[in-house]
Amino acid sequence: MAIKTSRRQFLERHVQGGVALVAAARSAFPQRTAGANDRVNVGVIGMGGRGCFLSQLFAQRRDVEIAYVCDVHPQRRENGLKVVYEITREQPKAVSDFRTLLDDKRVAAVIVATPHHWHALATIWACQAGKDVYVEKPACHNIWEGGKMVEAARKYNRVVQLGTQNRSSSYAKSARELIRSGKLGDIHLVRVFNMFCRKPLERTPDTRVPDGMNWDTWLGPAPERAYSETWFKDWLYFWDFGGGLIEDDAIHQLDLARMVIGRGFPKSVYHSGGNLAFHDGVEVPDTSLVIYEYDGLTFVLEQTWWAPYMKKTPESIRQSEVLFPEWFPFNDSVLQIYGTNGLMLLGRHGGGWQLYDRDGREITRDKQTHQAMQEAHVGNFVECVRSRKRPNADIEEGYISSAICHLANISYRLGNRKLEFDPGTGTFVNDREADRYLKRTYRKPWVVPEQV
Fold it and tell me: Which end of the chain has fewer surrounding CB within 10 Å, N or C?
């Protein structure tokens, strides 16, 4: 396999490759009915790689209509229109300000696929406008605003689903049931891997804003600054906009692990590492060893951004119902769950799981394709929009998984210091310096309110 490159390049390939899969899957759904009331009207906010891919997944459903595509960049709006039209032969409205679609009472739900720093405010405003929300991971840019997202969902009785699609996979549910049955014995150690590779950052100079782009809105809650392609395309590397690899990617494995073992907030967190391989101005760490302590359990994340020999599970395996990954030694995202009676190897995004007994013999396994689980996650959201039930990846669980990513980053930003967090108060234990990282200073008028 080729060495992984930037997040942007990955998403571009992902969208292009996903078109055929999504279009093929469309035939599995019943024919679109003529009445507009039979479909859930959806607006998509953010038409980058992930926003376009989610648009495909929603558009393939005969019970959904993509009514709006929204992006502050005109070319991305055009990309969104093309993606939807190629699947549905219907033309949604294209807007640059998502408040337009929030004002449209025909829109029942929105997809939030913006950079991280916009997730919370867009979700809260959508809840206040009476919309249900499918929001990409991580839920929030900081821990405080994540709590406000939960408050808004409950106050306005909204369905808010996080884009942690492993929670809708059949094999995640069977893994959880197997662990609950006691088959593994007592679990005292979980190891999560997230081993990527990126290119050095090439910082581009500040320049004029591209024609037709609303840069002020793109910045939103973040501090004002001049336009640069670095901020627009590589925002993940900088604290004002994103939280690096752990919040953008490792959250999938951390959330999946929490789901199957049934754990919430840790008692403490300790980050070790930093920018050890690159010295290119990127603010987020390229090397992380994170230890989460629970009662009777040590939970470890091992993460790099410079290991070319670590490989993603091939798509041919992720889309197979019978093939399993080669877990050792080069799988980049395996979860290892160690019990006193057995070891479970678990993979995200179609990797499935295999269980080994005390003698190291495989005794059972389960799997589902990546495409099927993604469709199931979207389907679960649409069903909950209709039924008003809580979704598989409800915002409260998404908040916890996002928060434990933030806890690791805060430990790093404080010089790799061990931290204790009290979820009851939403603050650190006797650590006012750490508390400063719980909430950002918002730029008016893009402010998450105290009272949602």
Answer: N
pLDDT beyond 90 at 7: no
The domain segmentation of the chain, as residue ranges, is 7-165+374-394, 166-369+395-452
Partners of 292 in the beta sheet? Answer: 269, 299
pLDDT in tens, 219-255: 999 999 999 999 999 999 999 999 999 999 999 999 9
Phi-psi map region of 160: left, alpha, beta (phi>0 left; psi -120 to 50 alpha): beta
- pLDDT tens per residue across span 51-85: 999 999 999 999 999 999 999 999 999 999 999 99
Write the pLDDT tens digit of every residue in 397-441: 999 999 999 999 999 999 999 999 999 999 999 999 999 999 999
In whole angstroms, how far apart are CA 431 and each of 190, 267, 414?
28, 15, 11
Task: Label each residue of 260-324 as H, E or C.
Answer: HHCCCCCCEEEEEEECCCCCCCCCCCCEEEEEEEECCEEEEEEEECECCCCECCCHHHHCCCCCC
Strands 268-274 and 187-195: unpaired
Look up tokens 């759904």; give the residue: 29
Task: State the angle between helix axes of 395-413 and 251-261 in degrees (0 to 180), rounded to the nearest 10.
Answer: 120
Tell me the angle at which helices 7-25 and 370-387 cross, rounded to the nearest 10 degrees. Answer: 70
Q: Where are the alpha helices (DSSP H) in 129-261?
A: 143-155, 170-180, 215-219, 229-233, 244-245, 251-261
**What SS3 class is residue 327?**
coil
User: Does pLDDT of 32 surpass 70?
Assistant: no
| Distance (Å) of CA 72 to CA 49, 78, 218, 312 | 14, 11, 7, 32
Q: Please give the Cα distance from 434 to 442 (Å, whole number).
A: 18
CATH architecture label of 7-165+374-394: 3-Layer(aba) Sandwich (3.40)
Q: Which CATH class, in words, describes the domain spanning 166-369+395-452?
A: alpha beta
Rounded CA separation 187/199 (Å)? 37
At 82, the amino acid letter reads K
Contact 203, 230 (CB under 8 A): yes
